[in-house]
Design goal:
This protein is about 50% helix and about 20% strand. It is built from 14 helices and 11 strands. It binds nicotinamide-adenine-dinucleotide.
Length: about 350
């Protein structure tokens, strides 16, 4: 599948580990620098092989704190040391952290070298690897430095999902549900009806739903690469989620739990101001609960959460702006009064 994001073209290929192995081992024009974290290096070696090929690689420790400028500098130094040119390739193999960082480095090296991404988490397959947002955390802020630089090729091999820890899988599921809500009724029905198979990670089914979720994201980004309009809808649930994470500390709630809770709150806010269809809200809340997501989290500090929401990137004139939905696929952004937010958080 080929997509155009702004002036960039991205090919997305679904592949098996066998095909991926052939692809990685095949002699290509130019140099290729592979980027892993220590976990994805292990999984990649088991699934695809590695030792028999002298791949040029950089392996970082895993974790969000590794998404920083020092590691981007290490990558750029390695590219320089390998005497890579603009036609050579940086290939990121990993979750969102490795994809974001590899893509950022590729966008900087010689003002942009070739970039391939092999996402290995559910979240990276349907979200982080797609759509060209690159970046690192800096000065205590998440993703505050970055570029728009879509990958030339994204290779998706769902077999990577078989080793993904449960909590990471659930992080991806929350985003998957969000993608379905943004505009794919068929995907939503599959997620509702085939929950047990999804949770047991039936690979064929995962391939189907990842494929569909990728389409949702690609269509939105094709229309709005730089988030000047429609792309903001991908933030459904995230204003609440980021505020919760900021107030309770990034490690208190897994990101997926925060996002699912945030989607529930966004639906409640929509119901409060009379825009969200209650039957639809009920359906989505039942779906989220069915996947084990908590819609009511204990010990919330409501006032602090509202203060944190005011710092969100989507705010205008100090007012909180939220992505809300009328119903499936009907998403918009609007200002929501503080008293409504308080009621929604206290409910
Ligand atoms: N660029 C974007 O548009 C975009 C969108 C959403 C999120 N993000 C970013 O993505 C990041 C989060 O990504 P993530 O959730 O993938 O986290 P991650 O990259 O930290 O990966 C999560 C954990 O899973 C491990 N892992 C990865 N693949 C594995 C596999 N197949 N088997 C076993 N373990 C594996 C990793 O080593 C890590 O410990 C955040 O930094 C966020 O800002 C970016």
């Amino acid at each position: 599948m080929k997509y155009q994001f702004g002036n960039f073209y991205t090919t997305i290929n679904f592949t098996s580990s066998e095909e991926l192995k052939k692809n990685i081992l095949s002699k290509k024009a130019g140099k290729e620098l592979l980027v892993f974290d220590k976990n994805t290096k292990g999984v990649f070696t088991r699934l695809v092989g590695g030792r028999e090929v002298a791949l040029e690689e950089v392996i970082f420790p895993s974790g969000e704190k590794e998404k920083n400028m020092e590691n981007v500098k290490r990558l750029l130094e390695k590219a320089l040391w390998l005497e890579m040119g603009r036609d050579d390739t940086i290939t990121g193999v990993g979750g969102g952290v490795i994809c974001d960082m590899s893509a950022f480095a590729a966008s900087l090296y010689m003002r942009g070298c070739r970039l391939v991404l092999i996402p290995t988490t559910l979240l990276a397959m349907i979200d982080a690897a797609i759509g060209g947002k690159t970046g690192v955390n800096f000065g205590g802020y998440k993703n505050i430095i970055g570029t728009f630089y879509p990958a030339e090729e994204i290779m998706i091999c769902v077999e990577f999902l078989s080793t993904l820890p449960e909590s990471e899988f659930k992080n991806g599921l929350a985003e998957l549900i969000k993608h379905a809500l943004l505009g794919n009724g068929e995907l939503l029905s599959i997620i509702e009806e085939r929950r047990d198979e999804i949770l047991k990670r039936n690979m064929l089914l995962l391939k189907e739903i990842v494929f569909q979720a990728v389409q949702v994201k690609c269509k939105i980004v094709e229309r709005d690469l730089r988030e000047s309009g429609e792309r903001v809808s991908l933030n459904l649930g995230h204003t609440f989620a980021h505020a919760l994470e900021a107030v309770s500390g990034l490690n208190t709630w897994p990101h997926g739990v925060a996002v699912a809770w945030g989607i529930g709150k966004a639906l409640k806010a929509g119901e409060q101001i009379g825009v969200t269809d209650s039957e639809y809200a009920k359906r989505v809340k039942a779906l989220l609960s069915g996947y084990g997501f908590e819609l009511d989290l204990p010990e919330l500090q409501e006032e602090k959460i509202i203060e944190a929401m005011k710092y969100d990137k989507k705010k205008r004139d100090g007012n909180v702006r939220l992505v809300l939905q009328r119903r499936l696929g009907e998403t918009f952004i609007t200002t929501v009064e503080e008293k409504v937010l308080l009621k929604v958080l206290e409910d």
